[in-house]
Structures are given as C-alpha cells and as structure tokens.
Give the backbone structure.
Amino acid sequence: MQLTGISMVHVPYKGIAPAMAAILGGEIQITYAAVLSGLQHFKSGRLRPLAIASRTRYPALPDVPTAAEAGLAGYEIDFWYALLNSPDMKESLAAQGCIAVGGRPEALTALIRSEYQLWSKVVKTGGVKVE
C-alpha cells in the first residue's frame, strides 16, 4: 500500500489455510501468500497469481511476472529460511518447488540486517500495531 498508494482493508486470518479458504470462497478479493500455499490453485485455474514478489520469476510459474515486471518497481520480497546446506536438504526443497540458495554465515547476517531495516521502516511508516 505504501508503494502504490492503494487503500486496502487488512483482514487478519489465523494462518494461510483460512485465508486461502476465504479467497477461494469469494470472501476476499486478494491475498499475499507464499507461492507454495496457492500453487495447486494457480495451476488448476481457481486462483490467478498477479505477480511474484521476488526479483526473479518462480520456476513452477514461468508465465507469472515479477512485481517489477508487472509495473511495481522496488517491490521485492522473498520468503526465506536459514537451514542446513546439505544436498539432501536442497533436493527436498527443490521437490517442494523451493529455490535453495547457499551462502556463508556473514551473508545471512547481512540479509537479516537488511530485512530488519526494511520491515522496521514498513512497520513505522504504516503505523502497524500488535493486535
């Protein structure tokens, strides 16, 4: 909302499962979710993904543009997890449609710092409060 000036009403759900049920049932018009949460519905045509929030397209949905490609420059959000860097873990993640990216501990520290700065600004600018 901060990047576009679009006004939306936040409807809190207790997890992605109830949010998916709400969007599939027509209770809400849009949601933001990890690709894997909606992948089966995107592939079946029940939901239409508007854009991928990361800086690169998602391999399982090659025809879905990134947010930047869709006209929203500066909107880049990646879901990430810090996990073991092993061949078995990478294979397991790839089977689930995830993209495993390895790195050094210093790179993870830098990522955490940049994410903290980004989301601190979003929270402060947006007046986000704990409910």
Q: What stands out?
A: The chain has two domains: 1-78, 80-131. The chain has a mean pLDDT of 89. The chain is about 40% helix and 0% strand.
